[in-house]
Please model this.
Amino acid sequence: MNESRFQRYPLNVVGKFYINAQCTDCDLCRECAPNNIRRDDRSGYSYVFKQPTNPDEVAAVEKGVAGCPTEGVSNDGDQFDWAKTPIYDWNALYKKQGNDIHFEIRAPLIKEKTNRPWWKIWQAR
Ligand code: SF4
Model:
């Protein structure tokens, strides 16, 4: 239950690189790759707003992958289907927290066999 492809932050643009729920807002990846990664000031999560398009940008984002202290920058986004691979229900999480952040999530929401909300499973890790 720790697969980052399910945890991808909803604002990431589709592509190889993305920020997952492990982000703790340390700023390292944004410092490394300001052309590609920025902060969602509502939540404190980083997200990839533009996939790297040249070797310098790729190297900058890979620096974030290597340097992130929480493995919050993922580089396997080219190995799954963004439209079909499920994602956590971030809207439900924020609603439960009383936060009015809302995302338009087009991918299917992750289903748990236990019927427990995903955030309870996540918190129990
Ligand atoms: S380096 Fe990791 S923890 Fe720090 S802002 Fe980026 S994704 Fe978040």
User: Anything to note?
Assistant: The helical segments are 4-7, 28-32, 55-67, 90-96, 118-123. The longest strand covers residues 37-40.
